[in-house]
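Encode chain A's predicted structure.
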Amino acid sequence: MNKEVFMKNYKYDIEERLIQFSVDVIIICGKIDGNFASQHLSKQLIRSATASVLNYCEAQSAESSRDFLHKMKICLKELRESLVNLKIQKGANLISDLQKLEQLLKENNELIAIFVSSIRTSQNKNK
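Encoded structure for chain A:
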């Protein structure tokens, strides 16, 4: 597989993982009860999870390497926000499907690691 095909598939896979992460967050938040804390955190979690994939798509159309790096950092910020939100909800026992919650936490951590690595690579190329 040549580098161009690999990069195209890599970008697609990350986009698909981000989309699936967002979908899974939306589904699990739809099952949360209606108390104030649950509603507040669920709405914010949906915003941060979906923002990560939307900003990733914007990064793919960046106007410069600096613009790309900026948008990728926003994705990372949103993913970190999602992770903290999930941890808060876990600690407060707001999400009852613990198996799905653990899967989301694992995927969230993996996505963060991918973005940290990608940002570092991009920064090194720009030096």
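The radius of gyration is 16 Å.
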